[in-house]
Amino acid sequence: MLYEQIQSNKRRTVVLLVGFLILVGLVGAAVGYLLLESLTIGVVGALVIGAVYIVIMVSNSTQVVMAMNHGTEVTQADQAPELWHTVEDMAMVAQLPMPRVFIIQDDSPNAFATGNSPKTAAVAATSGLLALMNRQELEGVIGHEMSHVRNYDIRISTIALALTAAITMLTNLGNNWWLFGVDTGRDRDDRENNSGGGQILTVVLSFLIMLLAPLAAAVIQMAISRNREYLADAGSVELTRNPQALIAALRKLAAAPPMQDVDASSAALYINDPMKKSAHLFDTHPPIAERIARLEKM
Amino acid sequence: MTLLIVIAIIAVIAIVWISVYNGLVKSRMQTKESWSQIDVQLKRRNDLIPNLVNTVKGYADFEKSTLQAVTDARANVNNAQGPAATMAASDQLSDALTHLFAVAEAYPDLKASANFMKLQEELTNTENKIAYSRQLFNTTTASYNTKLQTFPSNIIAGVHHFEPSEFIAAPESEKAVPTVKF
């Protein structure tokens, strides 16, 4: 079961990479067409940027993700004894190496794990989490994060995060240059007086891609993240043998206000949606009530 | 031709034999490692206790019997032989410490002292690690013992005299049936 989950995560990471690269190529084509009137330059440029970006993210993911989320590293038990010792306990019982530990200064309780493999994993908790949770509840939350580490959820979600951020960057670029791009298109029409139909169609397609790309990115992120949360909850209980504490922790997470300054593309990493949006279609997390209901059945 | 087939079969059996044997050794090593995890934490706690006793002694009217119980239980853990007896003594020490910390609630000065707070976190940490390493020990023991009983590893284990590892029983306090409230 656990082995299958790990295999499926590794497989889906590859599918995700390929799928995202196709999407990046399409966005590149749209942006390239509007900006430079060349599909090829757009596609090649986007793929090169995408590939370089992936390599940088994969080799440096912890640094990048922690910088995006304003995490400061804790390197000694003295700096945050309760958090450090809890992470140590959970790593030990999950038979994983001790991950790096980070604290995010934010009053809203939340936590996430990132990294490419259990050996390079990092766990981050907000100061609000440490203030609000008792030790058993903290163990439940950290156990949840260590389950993500053990299941290789961190690899797939870190790569998804990198790719989503890249697509958002590309479409923002396209959007900002849009007016300019249409102007050159019109000039060209006047000059060359081609049949406009084909070009209008291409422009419309380009726009569709630019509009759909962030949407597609969101859908993919959502698809990879929702079900894993249930699995990580179950994994946490397997480690702590204490479903009640995790239920109590989830209630506290649900009742808390959203985080102050959260990076939108990292939202799916957190144990609970840090932005507390009300929409349901693009939820990155399953509803807390549903998670609690599943835990109560255990 | 027949000779080749025979050689191939022998080679396959040898490879399976070696990999299963290595799996068993690795499994047994994991049970030993997880026991040594417990042992490390037990020693750590025994090292912390004299500090705790000295800190608490400073508060003149602190119950002597509570302190004595902790000191005695600590000595029992030191003297216990074998995993089962050691863990039984360890559980008594855990109870004695829980009692000490409960009594300490009545001493606001003691509770507020930085030294005491640090010791309390250290001891809580060690208690948790004992509990979790015990859980880990039972998990690794379960998977090792399963290998000793299932086919085909049971045959190889039998030939090479692998002995089953013993579980550590849960402490009495955890065995108590939880009260259900409506």
UniProtKB/TrEMBL annotation, chain A:
The chain crosses the membrane at residues 12-33, 39-58, 156-180, 200-220. Its main location: membrane. It is a multi-pass membrane protein. The active site is at E145. Residues 79-297 form the Peptidase M48 domain. It holds the Pfam family Peptidase_M48. Its EC number is 3.4.24.-. GO terms for biological process: proteolysis. It is found in: Cell membrane. GO terms for cellular component: plasma membrane. InterPro entries: HtpX_protease, Pept_M48_protease_HtpX, Peptidase_M48. Keywords: Cell membrane, Hydrolase, Membrane, Metal-binding, Metalloprotease, Protease, Transmembrane, Transmembrane helix, Zinc. GO terms for molecular function: metalloendopeptidase activity; zinc ion binding. Binds 1 zinc ion per subunit. Zn(2+) binds at H144, H148, E229. It comes from the Bacteria. Its cofactor is Zn(2+). Belongs to the peptidase M48B family. HAMAP family: Pept_M48_protease_HtpX. NCBIfam families: PRK04897.1. This is Protease HtpX homolog.
UniProtKB/TrEMBL annotation, chain B:
The keyword Membrane applies. GO terms for cellular component: membrane. The chain crosses the membrane at residues 6-25. It comes from the Bacteria. SUPFAM superfamilies: LemA-like. It is found in: Membrane. Pfam families: LemA (PF04011). Signal peptide: none annotated. It is a single-pass membrane protein. Its main location: membrane. The keyword Nuclease does not apply. InterPro entries: LemA-like_dom_sf (IPR023353), MamQ_LemA (IPR007156). Keywords: Membrane, Transmembrane, Transmembrane helix. Belongs to the LemA family. This is LemA family protein. It comes from Leuconostoc holzapfelii. The lineage of its organism: Bacteria, Bacillati, Bacillota, Bacilli, Lactobacillales.
